[in-house]
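Running this now, will post back.
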Amino acid sequence: MTIKVSLVTSATPPVTVKPATENINSGNQTIEWVPDSNQPAFTFVGVTFPTAPSGQFSAPSISTDPVCMTVIDNNNSQSSKGNFPYTLTVSLNGTNYSTGPGIQGGGGDPVIHNN
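Update: finished.
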């Protein structure tokens, strides 16, 4: 599953993703975030899943060449089904920007939906 990430530093939220809701089938699935077309040269900082059960999502693996971030979704049990909102953070010129609330963030609400 590939999710495209956009950064507009003057927008609220400054970071948006397409699709905003990613549907994930059962089984261990790799989720990858990549910059959308024509984006500034940001790098990924991380992603958090505040409502996910422990072990649901792996720690993020972040690459700068190519620029991307991946996690493994352990979608293998009934408790792993449902919606898992997340906050994704990127960095540009030493400033962090995110999809969610907080410093340089906004009201974004991207979701991983486990079927």
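The CA atoms of residues 43 and 91 lie 5 Å apart. More later if anyone needs it.
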